[in-house]
Amino acid sequence: MTLKDAVKGRENNLDLIRFIAAVLVIVGHAYPLCIGPEGRDILSQLTTGKSDMSFGGLAVTVFFFYGGYLIAGSANSKKTAKEYFKARILRIFPPLIFVTLILAFLAGPFLTEMTVGGYFTSIGTYKYLLNSFLIPIHELPGVFTKSPYNPTVNGALWTLPIEFCCYIACFVVYKMGILSEEKQKAFAVTAVLAVLGIIASNLILPLPLVATIRSAIMFYMGMLCYVYRDKIEIKPLYAILALVLFAATVPFGIFKYTCFICLPYIYMYIGFGTKVKFSNFAKYGEVSYGMYLCGYPIQQILCQVSGYTMGPVLNFVLGTVLSVAAGFLVYYNIERPVMRLQKKKG
Questions:
Q1: Domain that holds residue 207
Q2: How far apart are CA 270 and CA 286, in angstroms?
């Protein structure tokens, strides 16, 4: 069975996988938020000094890989720039704007150490609204200033500008006419850029940029798998071998190279190739994006309410429960109405 055969129809595990990835982001954030910069989850401890990857970082590769695959398909189906970017904008921005406004004007006044008047007259309160336009402003005046990690209000938002840049790059590749099965040889030339990106991220660039390049390359790998979907065989044995290879290379630090080969195949198999599929997992609402947007500030609030005495395990458990609830709130009040409006307008 090829990947092209496996993705036919609507039977897949993507909703479940995205939910698990959103939970892993909460796990990855719980340790530093509760303990400080030295707080690391198990995966981060294993990879420290070897191109550090936490559970949250792993989850980001999930989002970007599937994003690359699905957005490549969207580019081929939407055809025009207007259709393509309208779909992307309506997906990303309404929930983002909603959460940004809630944090700035409802949560912020209660969380700040400043007076309410001082908070609302501070320019920083209104600068925070720039997050609605993918301009990262990480702090609100007087909010989370005693955090053992940092006063960042919503650290998860760093991925969204990168993601939107990937959308633009994907459409450019589509307009070049090489984002299709018929142009596989032409698309292969782009692999040179990916290889250079991998080398640069691991040998040249500073560590803070590694996650950025890794995310972009995982998006590219999703696009690559889309273009070559008729050639990629999906077999459980190959998935097991990829998992074993990835796990074996983690202690030696070379996983920072093997992850770009192993993880995409693992994601393809668990997303589309399993015999049993959980296609109805999001029957009552696809909450992963809302969880992603709300998880970090919820965890920060939990830390502050506890007087910064809460441990990472409790923070993870409570943060997950509350983030799921917030995800449903965002889905039913923002995402679903926007999707219905979009369908209604054709």
A1: 3-344
A2: 18
